[in-house]
Records
---
Amino acid sequence: MPDNATAATPSAYAYPLLIKQLLHTPFVQAPNQEIVYRGQVRMTYTTLRERIARLANGLSRLGARHGSTVAVMDWDSHRYLECYFAVPMMGAVLQTVNVRLSPDEIAYTINHAGAEILFVHTDFLPLVESIKGQLETVREFVWIDEEGSEAETHSIPFAAEYEAMLAASSDHYDFPDFDENTRATTFYTTGTTGLPKGVYFSHRQLVLHTLTGMAALASPEAGQRFHRGDVYMPLTPMFHVHAWGMPYIATVLGVKQVYPGRYIPNRLVELVRDEGVTFSHCVSTVLHMMLGCEQARAADFSKWKIVIGGSALPHGLARAALERGIDIFAGYGMSETCPLLSLAQLPPGAEALDDEEQLRLRCTTGRPVPLVDLRIVNENMEEAARDGNAYGEIVVRAPWVTQGYLNNPEASVQLWGGGYLHTQDIATIDPTGNIQITDRLKDVIKSGGEWISSLEIESLISLYPGVSEVAVIGIKDEKWGERPVALVVLSEGFVVSEDDIKRHVLTFSESGRISKYAVPQIVKFVDSLEKTSVGKLNKKWLRAQFA
Amino acid sequence: MPDNATAATPSAYAYPLLIKQLLHTPFVQAPNQEIVYRGQVRMTYTTLRERIARLANGLSRLGARHGSTVAVMDWDSHRYLECYFAVPMMGAVLQTVNVRLSPDEIAYTINHAGAEILFVHTDFLPLVESIKGQLETVREFVWIDEEGSEAETHSIPFAAEYEAMLAASSDHYDFPDFDENTRATTFYTTGTTGLPKGVYFSHRQLVLHTLTGMAALASPEAGQRFHRGDVYMPLTPMFHVHAWGMPYIATVLGVKQVYPGRYIPNRLVELVRDEGVTFSHCVSTVLHMMLGCEQARAADFSKWKIVIGGSALPHGLARAALERGIDIFAGYGMSETCPLLSLAQLPPGAEALDDEEQLRLRCTTGRPVPLVDLRIVNENMEEAARDGNAYGEIVVRAPWVTQGYLNNPEASVQLWGGGYLHTQDIATIDPTGNIQITDRLKDVIKSGGEWISSLEIESLISLYPGVSEVAVIGIKDEKWGERPVALVVLSEGFVVSEDDIKRHVLTFSESGRISKYAVPQIVKFVDSLEKTSVGKLNKKWLRAQFA
């Protein structure tokens, strides 16, 4: 009788989940499929495989070994795709440097990650020269010189140039097996306060994220799906959460891939047109810029599918995209979650719904992808009802969420609680699993035992004639915990009273849409509202000001 | 500077790949989706979740614990689906009893697996009564009495009846976390010689098989795909390789599922029609029977997709299916591989191919699914060229292949070699990754350093006028290793000489289709050819006879 209580022992035949294992099928099934860079460089998947091996050999010569960190400063390119595979496949860690940080922050992240080798695109030479003296761990610099420029003015002692290094290296490399929990990638989040924090993902996590993302994106009944016949172009930077992990999915699917270099709206639209792009992902701002650019006027977007993430998908943008024939839908995740948690794909039978309901569904936070254990909970980790009304903070378990911040145990502790990663997002879930984020935890107002969404009250007040801008914040209250206060900027020429606003909000309370606690205690008229550097309401500042 | 060489340590937040994790999304996204049994029992996914918990509670009361084995003898049913989840989710092992084995073999497998609890459908009562005395490990019997019958005649001391047990149990059960390498399922292969051998799969393996199968099946450009809008009905028994793992995939997709009970062709066709079934999988024989039954004449199969596995998909059956509007394609795998290894889905752009080429592609062995490292090799594990001509044995690595036979180290050793599982199938691979199995390793003829496919030579000889049946076997030869011998049965009234056959085969050698070594050394005319009990050529017997 067998000893079933013992787990099946991992044997010599155990199969670790390594990024190299993602490459078995694409090079077999789509060997002649194209990878295109800016419409100028074209290569096949067979060439990609060779270049991955060349890059690994080149890096080995520069001293990269298992556990080394290789940092990259490049635009979205086939080179970046090569790094996504070659660096982790040799057992090293790929640091995708966030080139939008300040020079000091960039130096900090490279030092903090302990990068030994730094790839620098010509466009970032001045920046790297300015921080060279601060870099403590970089031993070797590799120049990415796609223009054949001389870069005479630079003073960086480059060990190699990217293409020359590949040309001089063998196209064969025996990528070894190792522990699937080995760190594969790292990058830094842009916190609004404090130093950037590093998140990191293992081979196992990236393989599972790829498979599940592939399964979730391919399985809708019709539309909104990423499949083998698509042409893929990322529109979220490759330095940011591995471009949402999509280049890994695209490669396993064996689709044509298009990398656009630096984001210039007219050029992006030309690439969609000229290369026949059918699947992309971006933040709202990028799509908004693209739809508004000159080249967009005559462009045919009717075969283009786009996942929007990073923040809520505005109904207005979604409607504008749908009018241009774009199959648009929202996705949800964060840097700490690799990122994919949920997708707002239409469920089977949705073609029978009216246009407004379809639009609403496309703009929700979506439904969890497989393996994601997503709940909305109160402070005691008790689940809120899934009735579309009850609020809670989104907490998640998934095989691909970061287990903490790199060398930052204090911040890591705050990220986790009760065995779940805490997203700080407040949401409802309806009975069919649709999540709707209503607020950030730090902005939600807790009054009389209820959670009031500051965003929802702002949205209602903004409907009142003459209201130009509004911020709703919570102020401490002995009896109720917190009470909502509305700060309102009126348009010129309007006369509105505090009672007008309160009565207006009260009607929504009477109709049952919002709690009676949501009616602002105080409505204060102000000349302007403090914003952050990226144009969002600075609620932290406002709360301090009106405490 | 971080210690990157150290793997990211699995922490308290590690997420084991457990079968329970497959259930997060379906009950959220499709709570009211239907599961149907024989058109008679209907329940929702929400009810399924409750019944899984009830079953686990019922089994706990019967003493099942982590490491126990629970064996099931049932037809394809919602009950079996409940067992697929509840038994492994509590940490126990599900043995799916192969009810087609002989009574003695069934008793052997139950004892060998060490099953403590045995579920018995009323139809199997006589069988279980006949072997009751042989069962060494079963402590408790559970009766599956769907007819409300009294089964008065039986002498088995049932501890419970399935439905009564569920009704008496709580619908809440806290399924624990445990090591993902814990054994989840076991079943026995029907070897042609010797005792049945047990294969077994862990939670990790089944989760990875589910995700990858889901991704592979959903991602074709058009057609041949299993997606959220489908209605699923298995047509390979649930006791055999978990019905190819498809019920797990169907559940994660959240589709309507239809379980047919015992396979009766007319009833199966009625279920396809009445329940709107759109996705199934079976061996050729089952589809052949269904297409030939009375109910099939007027049936509309135009929305039905079918994967055919178990053995090669005959062109004739594929053509007949296509003529009825069925979207048919082959899959490849074996009991030892969980089973999915490859799928013969049409590649993007295939709609431009002519019908015959599409038919050919649908009938190939297919292309590997993601994560499957599949090679064709010679005896020294050297890879054969992927040119569509060179032969080799298919060897595989994949995260879900069994690591050996249960408590059978000798057979396990034979299964593996050079780090790969050896399938005993001989195949070619063309430059676009299409595998074509040409023979079984034990039947291939090794002559003059080349591998000759006995199946291919048989196929060529069968084209010669008057040839009714033919078997090609290898006989030992001092100079060449082996030489092919053809055993030919002629149709009545035909006069054919040995030279006629040799010259016929030689023409294919001259045209380059086959090697010159493939021309039979001897052609022997016989009255009949020995067959196995399932009607296949008994080449083992023939080789011994003509050695």
---
Amino acid sequence: MELRIPAADDLHIHLRNDERTLAAVKAVREGGACRVLAMPNTSPALATGEDATKYRHYLVMQGADFDILTTIKLMPTTTPEMITEAARLGVSAGKQYPLGVTTNSEDGVSDFRAMYPVYEAMAQSDMVLSLHGEVPGAFVMDAETEFLDELHRIHRAFPKLRIVLEHITTQAAVEAVRSLPDNVVATITDHHLDITLDDVIGSTIQPHHFCKPVAKRPSDRKALNEVVREGHPSFFSGTDSAPHLIADKENACGCAGIFNAPYHMQFLATHFDALEMLPRLADFTSKFGAEFYRLPPSGEEIMLIKRDVLVPNTYDGIVPFKAGQTLTYDLAWI
Amino acid sequence: MELRIPAADDLHIHLRNDERTLAAVKAVREGGACRVLAMPNTSPALATGEDATKYRHYLVMQGADFDILTTIKLMPTTTPEMITEAARLGVSAGKQYPLGVTTNSEDGVSDFRAMYPVYEAMAQSDMVLSLHGEVPGAFVMDAETEFLDELHRIHRAFPKLRIVLEHITTQAAVEAVRSLPDNVVATITDHHLDITLDDVIGSTIQPHHFCKPVAKRPSDRKALNEVVREGHPSFFSGTDSAPHLIADKENACGCAGIFNAPYHMQFLATHFDALEMLPRLADFTSKFGAEFYRLPPSGEEIMLIKRDVLVPNTYDGIVPFKAGQTLTYDLAWI
């Protein structure tokens, strides 16, 4: 069994700007992606179009041999002028983090209303608003669902603004995005199609399954898989792959993030095949997202080949998603 | 400010039977307890009255200078005859673990109905049934609530059986126990009065806050504190203190359990004072539980003294609850 499809667009990835970047960059093509949207919560953050442009150059110097769509981080200090300038420099999206809910979000937003002039500039520049959709300070199991009111408010205020609700984890988020027009979409990660909170804090505590938003209930996972099976074009793939060194995960206060990029398409082919929805894979990973971001076809293709692949226990000092497990699909570049 | 009260009865503690036992034993008096109910999920488990008796001797050899009430572990292999013999040897309780939900529960129970002959023998021997109340295989946030039906069924079948629903974490469990007669009671741990799931998997993942049942919602924590504030005699203190070496917590698959024994009463005095319910402390820690287990007054007393105490980062290779934090009450034996 072989499946030849366009290479993946990973429309949400963390490549960082430190000793982890080489591994993170290397993993992209190994996992079958040829285009990525690189998140701006590096340290320091990417605040301007110039920062984003420099970051793309940095990634290329680190070996990135794939297309990089850039982002800037929307912070309380972001101005409409910064948006206009970033758009002029080709930045694809502005990413907004809620204050304090995940890695490097100490400069995140708590007053969404105060960001409206920024959103207005984004709508005018046709820049995508990328949202980490959790309410700061809300209980961890409710934070995404409580954010959905905010999503509806932003959409009502800026009906033309293109919005991505990133890495959704709940049935409620699926239903909210489904209820909105096609300029409001969602990304779904590999791991949220696969794990639930039981895999994070079931009988043991498993930091390599911890990410934000955290995986939720079996019914939520089911809703995510169902909307992908349906082939709804408002839901597409973004890995949220985040490289954290083992010591930063396995400690008293471990970081949020799952490193799924190196076996991204191998895992998804395995997962989609198990759920008998392999024909939906290419649209999810390589079409709907590109259409939303108005990208031309990449022209690159990968072959997914039915044969066992053992995911290693570590990958350059990072524990990858599915470490030590066997996937049933391998990947080759054509 | 000083508070002189009877020393604590810790009616749920894990002292283990290995290199951690010395520290676990030493912590008991340091935390203000003079009597404990020692849990039987050692390795190997305490299956019989003879096992329990030997274990008490072992603990004394490890330096235990406090009264030890013993337990046996109820397993699919437990017989009514084993109950009768254990009762004859003075075992206080039979502890039942659901299959696979926590540390050393691989030999736990999944078919509760099959245990009824054992419960019958316990009722006849007046031995306490101690329940880890989670349904095996249920979603982690629902497992305790789903068990409450089972609790009601067991109580209906054995209305005279004395039952402890251990380390409850939910408003639903509070309401269930409150609705039942005074032979069905609950223990509440130190940590469940203090933390929620946000302290386990909020913006970071914190294995030293991970226990089973896992801490739940703010509304659940509120219900636990409210029932203690009310001074309801069916709710009393059991720390569920469990010593796990740092390496067994801070890894890819960390153990469940929080080591709160060494600062047990110092923490509770601090917590009760902050909630302005210090007058309820002695009943919760040193009276209601003893009455349920029909223990005479211990005759021992402790003094809780209002002065700052810094909880160390580690305690004999174990991270204690509240590590690195300052409590506002110290403790002295009288």
